[in-house]
Give the backbone structure.
Amino acid sequence: MIERILAPLHALLAPPIPTCLACGKRMTKAAQGYPEICRACVAQIPWIIRPRCAVCGRSIGCPDCTRPGVAASRHFACNRSAVAYDPLMREWLAQYKYRGREAFTPIFQRMMGQAYKRMASELSGPPHAVSPWHIDAVTYVPLSPSRLRERGFNQAELLAIGAAAAAKAPLIDILERTRDTQKQSSKTRRERLSDMKSAFQLQPHAADVFQQILSRRRTLSKKNEIKILLIDDVYTTGSTLNYCSLALLQACTDLGISAQMYSLTWARS
């Protein structure tokens, strides 16, 4: 009798059983490194461990990087991505960007940290480099003011926090959009490439930021050059990353700085 009376009280006072942020199921044991997600969901993450395309980081055969003239018009050295953009990852990102599930933020940031470490390890080894590869600064693709007001946050900026922490490099806010661009998901490759032209420029304080980075860089090397890592959520055609990289490279050239651009995205379509 006493047990029956106390059972509801015990249930009320017992610690709640956590549920998986991704699938909503109860978790008996969280996945290592990702306590918000169940082990089954973590096991389904399509990590890109060994990219097949050395340029864009795609995990499958890549027709884009072999198109005539693409290499000559690319303004970043290479891209790497944390995951392949499969239906599950598309759903995660949709929940994050469009349905207000900001609880995904620390998960995505840790994923970006893992991806950066994998990228640094790859580019530090032969035949890429004779010394450890490092980044001097991390920046991100900006949103237009209207899109930022609509969404309330810039997902690329939050992703960049995870990459910058892993790189132990400063996170700099120096890019801005010169005009609104329509959502890219429904556009063809040609439309994407055309729409991104002249869509980005540097903020007025960019010159000071570059000088600060260069000053810090000179404590490590006498070379008048810097490496910048550009962050975005999804790499599709690479047009957004390419034109952001162009704006950054042109600004560095105007300041007499030799710069190399690299990019890291959460997903590769």
Q: What stands out?
A: The chain has a mean pLDDT of 87. Residues 48-268 form one domain. Residues 57 and 86 are 15 Å apart (CA to CA). The chain has two domains: 18-46, 48-268.
